[in-house]
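Researcher: Final request for today, and then I'll write up notes for the group meeting. The sequence and the SMILES for fe (ii) ion follow.
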Amino acid sequence: MMDLCDDGKRLQPVPLQDAALHVATHFYGPEESAALMHALREEIAWRQERILIGGRERLQPRLSAWYGDAGRTYRYSGRRFEPLPWTPVLLRVRADVERATGHRYNSVLLNLYRNENDSVGWHSDDEAELGSAPAIASVSFGETRRFRLRHRRRKDLDAISIPLENGSLLLMEGPTQSCWRHAVPKETQACGPRINLTFRLILD
Ligand SMILES: O=C(O)CCC(=O)C(=O)O
Ligand SMILES: [Fe+2]
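Model: Predicted protein-fe (ii) ion complex:
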């Protein structure tokens, strides 16, 4: 029987070949999401990082921050990031996400998309320190943005688009990173800010 109480709080499967995806569209309700978004905007040490793309230094088209257990260094786009220590808000969201996903996480990458011109290009979260089939839990607040997925080899499969709403939780597991790339493209319509947190487990 359909659960009439399920208003998007629980993870539901998203059918996709060579992937394991679940989404809870309203993991957090609107009031809680607004409070968490506000706290994160204020408390996180947001930076616009310089990264190397094809040997050339560029500014990332978004703000970001890296928090986690001490010593869990993360390498990304030719740079090394040392994590900042967990804040109470991040620990609270991590506890909620660990309970809902059944996985543990020791670090979180945060992105702040200031408006429609901020984006993240096509990539997989396939850094060696995440292991071969990482579980990555992604929480979004603020403006709904399109999370695009494109298969790395199967050109016959269409790209898909998952709108990640305020308060949503997306869980990517299994072959998702080894078989698919993802991106959050710029939007043509003006839009407000969005914060995304991706919880990860950096292995020894
Ligand atoms: O903002 C998002 O939804 C995705 C961010 C992302 O792919 C990443 O941080 O690796
Ligand atoms: Fe990613």
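Model: The chain has a mean pLDDT of 94. Residues 30-43 form the longest helix (14 residues).
Researcher: Thanks, that's everything.
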